[in-house]
Amino acid sequence: MQTLVTDLDMLALADSLEGQLRWPGDARAHVAALRRKVNGARIVRSDDVPEDVVTLNSRVRVTDLDGAFDAIYTVVPHAHGTRDDIPVASPIGIALLGHREGDEVGFWVDSGLRRLRIKHVLYQPEAAARARERR
Questions:
Q1: In this structure, are residues 43 and 10 in contact, taking their beta carbons and an 8 Å threshold?
Q2: Domain 4-134, CATH 3.10.50.30 — does that match?
Q3: Structure pTM?
Q4: What are the residues whose beta carbons fall under 8 Å from the beta carbon of 44, sequence distance 6 or more?
Q5: Every domain of the chain and the residues it spans
Q6: Mean pLDDT, the chain cut into blocks of 10 residues (135 residues total)
Q7: What separation, in Å, do the N-terminal and C-terminal C-alpha atoms of the chain show?
């Protein structure tokens, strides 16, 4: 699975990652994991990213393959305080960013490995912007 990150998301993440490296403990490990992921990603123009790819501020429906339930998350640059907002520097956010509908992703939490399948990208800002431009 090739991770895709948009050029604009890469700029936002680069700015964010610099400041977050000063965070203590687990947060630092998550930031380092996100940095490794984006460093290995294929960068695509925001105008060209497929609409089924999870980008920053995308809203996605996932199936938890271990718990057999569905959830909807929004991958955000920083936590905004709502239950459905997933910071991109969290284990779930790192796992989801840059992957597509149908992909299975895994990440480690205290209780072990969690696996998710991305069922549907409900909203992607880049696709929404292209739709507005076509009108």
A1: yes
A2: yes
A3: 0.90
A4: 4, 5, 6, 7
A5: 4-134
A6: 90 77 67 87 94 97 92 88 85 95 93 95 94 81
A7: 33
